[in-house]
Structures are given as C-alpha cells and as structure tokens.
Amino acid sequence: CVIKMVQKYQSPVRVYKYPFELVMAAYEKRFPTCPEIPVFLGSEILHESRSDDGSIHIIERSCKLNVDAPRLLKKARVEYVFFIQKNTVNWKERTLRIEAHNETFANRVVVLETCSYSVHPENEEWTCFEQSASLDIKSFFGFESTVEKIAMKQYTSNIKRGKEVIEHYLKELISQGITFIPRWTPPLESGQKDEQTLAVGPGVDDVPAESGARGATKEPAGNSCPSAEAVSPDADKLDADYIERYLGQLTPMQESCLIRLRQWLQETHKGKIPKDEHILRFLRARDFNIDKAREMLCQSLTWRKQYQVDYILQSWRPPALLDEYYTGGWHYQDREQRVLSSFNTYKWLYIFTVASLLSKCRSSRLDYDKFLFCVHCRSWTCLVDLEGLNMRHLWRPGVKALLRIIEVVEDNYPETLGRLLIVRAPRVFPVLWTLVSPFINENTRQKFLIYSGNNYQGPGGLVDYVDKDVIPDFLGGDCVCNVPEGGLVPKSLYQADEEPENPEHIRLWTETIYHSASVLKGAPHEIVVEILEGESVITWDFDILKGDVVFSLFHSKRAPETGRKEATLPSTSLAGDNTQLIDKTWVLGVDYSRMESPLVCREGESIQGSHVTRWPGFYILQWKMHGPLPCSGTSLPRVDDVLASLQVSSHRCKIIYYYEVLASKDFR
Question: What is the DSSP letter of 265?
C-alpha cells in the first residue's frame, strides 16, 4: 500500500526595518557556507544568469545539509541530504523569490519551499519576508512517521534561526560602516554595465560608510502599533511582531495554523471575520489541528448568526428577576493578571429558563470579550463557592440547564478560562462532577482546582493564585466583595419542571448512583454493607426530602435476612424501596450493636458522614421515622417535637441516599 503524509507551513510576515538592498547584502553573506547555520554545510553554484539590463539576477545552487538523523540515513545508505535552491532577484521591483526542493529521496519524500523578500508597502525603507513549505511523504522504508517528526522538528527549529542569521549579518555590515546601498537604476546607455547592480555581492564592501544618511540603523518614530493593520504589510496578512506582542508566544507551526485558518476564512466566509485572538482560541481548543478547529469555528459562526449574538447587547434585556438574583460578577485580577470572577451558579437554575440563562451567559461573554480587547488579557479566572450545595440541587431540570450552559460555552467560547478555583466543595460534589465532566474538554478540565472544607486557606490554597488583598472577605481574604449575592430566591418564583412528573416519585439524573426510599411509621429503611477487612471506611450522603428521620449505624456478626415489607406500602406508591433487615427477634447488645449515636435529621437537611470500621462483619445503615418521645407524668413534650408532628402530613418520610466503602488508605 502507498502511505501518504502531508504537512504544510505558512509563515507570518516578518519585517526587517532595513532597506531591501541592505537585507540582500546580508542574505548573500550566507553563501557559499554559513557558520551561523550548523546544518548548512555548504553550497555550489550550478547556474547563474543576468538579464541584459542587469535588473534580474538568477542563481541556482546545490545545498548540502547535515540532517540530525544519522541512524535513519545510514539505513538508507545516505550520508548527507542535498537541496536545489533557485534564487531570482528583481532589482527593479526590489523582490527576491527563493524556490527550493529536495534532490535526495525525491522519489519518496517531496519537500517544496518558497520564500520571498519584498518592500514593505507602507514604508519603502523596510523589507518583508514570507515563507511557505510543504512536506509530502509517500513512503520511507516503514519510517514515515519518524521522518515526518524529524523533518518538522528540524524545519521549524531553523525558521526563526533564519531571521536571526539575517539580523546577525545586518549588524556585521553596519559595524563595517555599510548602512546604505544604492538602488538599481537602468543603464545610461544600451549595453552599459550598471555598477550599482553589482553592489550587492563582492563589491558591497566598496560602498563608502558616510553614505548611510538614510537612517537605516534607526527605528522610525511611531513604531508602537495598536493593531495588526499598523504593522502588517497587508491588511489580509499577519505580522510576526504583532503576533508576539498581542497574541503571545507561538511556535512556527502554531503561527502557520493561525495564518492558514485566517486566510481560509477570508476566502470563504461571508460576513464579519472573527478577531485573531478568537481564531487562536479555537485552534488551541483543538490542539492546533486545523481541520478540527475549522469545523468547530464554522459551527460557532453559524450559532452566532442563528442567535444574533453580535447584536445581543443592543437587543436583549435580561428579566428583572435575573438582575435581582444573579449571583456573580467580575472581581479584580489574579496573580497572572487574569480577570477574576466570582460565581454561585446553582441557585439560578430554579427560577430561570435555559433560554434566559444562555442569553445572560452570551451577554456576559460579550462584555468580557470587549474588556479583554481593551486590557490585552486573554483569559479569566473563575472562583466558585459551593457552600450549601447538596443533593437537592441535583435536580433534573437544573442539571440539564447546567449541562446546556457548559455545552454552549465550550463550543463557542473555547480557551477563555484560565483557571477555575472551586472552594468549599461538599461531599456531594464528586457526584455532580461525574455528571458534568464528560461534557468538558480535556484541556479545560486540567484547569480545575477543587478544594473541600477549608483546604483553600493557607499555602497551596487561594493565596497561590490570588493576592490576599483581593480574596473575598467571606473566604478569609482582606477584600470586601461587591459581587452581587442575589439573596434567597422565594419558592413562589421557581419554574415548573419542563417535564411534569409524579410528585411522589423522585427522579434524579443520578438515579444509577443515588437511591430513593420511603421510611414508614414502624417500618424503617435499612441497608447492609459487608466488610471483609477491619480497616475500611463507610461513607454516606443523604437528603431528607420529607419528614424527620433518625439515622443509626449498627454492626452484627450475623448476616441479616433481606425482606421487603410490601404490605406496608400503598400499592400505587412509586416513592422508592423500603427494606427491613434487623429481625424483630434480635436483641440490641446481643445480636447486634450500635456503632454511631442516633442522629436526628430534619426535613430539608443534607447529611454527610463516615465511619471507620474496627471489625469485619455486617454493618447496617438505618433510617427510622422520628416522632415525639413518650411523655412521663412529670414531663412535657418538647416544642420541636410538637412542631415536627404538626408538619408531617402522613406517616411517611422520603429520603435519597448514597453510600460507598473505601479502603482506609484511600479515604481523605
């Protein structure tokens, strides 16, 4: 079979702030050998010609390269790699075109390179350089992938080195007093040889030093440019200095991907072209795979058009409730000068539709994008406080809305998140993370830092990423945070479920992890956990959805017999299981023993806990309906018990629960 691997490269425009003729003099110093480029061992002129008027000069050379792959070359019985390079200088137009291709392995690997030097269209005293190349590997003795990696590594490592070499020889010329070389002019008489044409080359050293009055060694005023158009020689092209200054440090191949994707948009996309930093985000999100990034960007542009995102700040007004209860906002900067925001997300999900939340997110993102462009900040840090999050927030429509928001942000605003700091994550958070993490890009997931309890305080916590004087005071910092808290949302404002459900049936997104159960008067709900090793940890997490219960933990050496008490449940009940395990004939202290003190749990509470086991055997978790204690003749019932009895409208409590057994060494 024929294996075909193709790689392409397109450079940004690199600008030398020197006249074309002086740059050409520096370029010619690379031949016939160049100690500044170790891989270039030497060259030999194969053909040379000039036009009659001397304006065009063509040189064809054979260049000898020492490729850093000795084992591979020895297997191919080749010591060096040879390239054919053709240079065409047009002194009249002030351009140099360089075309090169490999002579070695030409029937297996095709390398084509084209470079050009030309005059900057806005400043004739500056010179522009562009470079493009392609690598087409047809077959190479089964080492195609290795050849591709070696070739791309060596090529990209020599790209920026080439500019450094030109600048090195420019400084050398200037140190010799050569700062100006006259431009080509037509011969005065037919057939007369123009000495100025030959000034570039061996005769360059004869140019007098005092002729450097054109200021080639000076940087013209107004050199700090606020936009790409101010530097780039063409509005449709990107300048290397602009990329480094405003888009950050990119590898040559990353620059190439940006330029090629940008060029493709200019040629095919009708309408507003995204800013360069936006295009770069999509490339980063797809690890600079240009095909995947192009597909992602096209889908996002379609989405923006469909929802009129570019006009949302002018056309959309948030509902009054969203302004009143929106919990979060922008808050100073982190240590890396990223914009810092603080959010409390889950409370929105009860009172707003997915559409209104997405509109708010789109609006916030546009505000953020405008802010980024002003301060040259490329990403933001988000601080999320999850205090109070419990299983009740894992509500089907709420989780659905959260996943939709994540999907929209990931698809249309990639790589805007610099870091996500989650503090006071409760024990239920791993369940929520299990639900949402598959929808988050791997690159984004690596930016998450999660702190449980008070772990965010002290070294290794928030102070490593945010200065203490901007950490909100409620998280132990010195800053009074003005981010809106939103307040307690009245239940009267809650949205109805998008899919009406039986109110007696608790349906969770986590139904494969969490279980629902009924606790009846005289019929507690019990589950058994068998422990084979003494040193284990039983953890539990449950919510009381209705009524008050008493939670207990017991241990027995005997295996209980499971039995469903279906007779005690209404035949139409969908509220969950009710299982009793402790036989009525068992005696506490003889057949089984209590491991944890009884815990009274009120309706609406979320309980998390753990127990380190000391012995193997069977551990029974029990939820029992809580009722007022019997009164003696000299005592009155407690007020809390009386109120609790009034609140319970039926002899049934409802819970949702989750438990897990961990080895003690794995427990944190």
Answer: H
Q: Is the pLDDT assigned to residue 176 strictly greater than 90?
A: yes
Peptide bond into 32 cis (omega under 30): yes
* Together in a domain, 86 and 35: yes
- 417-425 and 448-452 beta bridge pairing: parallel
Residue 228 belongs to a domain: no
Most confident listed range (334-338, 541-545, 554-558): 554-558
Quote the tokens at residue 367.
């505000």
- CB proximity list for 356: less than 8 A, separation 6 or greater: 318, 319, 322
Give the span between the Cα atoms of 322 and 347, in whole angstroms. 11
What is the arithmetic mean of pLDDT over 57-70?
Answer: 86
User: Three-state SS for 11?
Assistant: coil
Q: What is the mean pLDDT of residues 563-571?
A: 43
User: Which of residues 176, 204, 224 is at a domain's end?
Assistant: 176
- Residue 270 CB neighbour total at 10 angstroms: 5
Among 490, 523, 547, residue at a domain's last position: 490
Helix, strand and coil content of the chain, in percent to the nearest 5, comes to 35, 30, 40
- Is 616 exposed, middle or buried, given 0-12, 13-18 or 19+ CB atoms closer than 10 A? middle
Structural domain harbouring 59: 6-176
Q: How many CB atoms lie within 10 A of CB 239?
A: 23
Does position 206 have pLDDT exceeding 80, yes or no? no
| Domain membership flag for residue 405 | yes
pTM strictly above 0.70: no
What kind and span of H or E run contains 152? Answer: helix 144-175
| CA–CA gap between residue 428 and residue 439 (Å, rounded) | 19
Q: How far apart are CA 582 and CA 591, in angstroms?
A: 10
Name which of 361, 359, 358, 356 is nearest 341 in CA terms: 361
587 shares a domain with 475: no
Arithmetic mean of pLDDT, 254-258: 93
Give the Å distances, CA to CA, from 218 to 13, 129, 180: 21, 20, 12
38 assigned to some structural domain = yes
CB atoms within 10 A of CB 240: 20
CB count within 10 Å of CB 245 equals 14
510: confidence class by pLDDT, cuts 50, 70, 90: very low
In angstroms, the CA 245 to CA 241 distance is 6
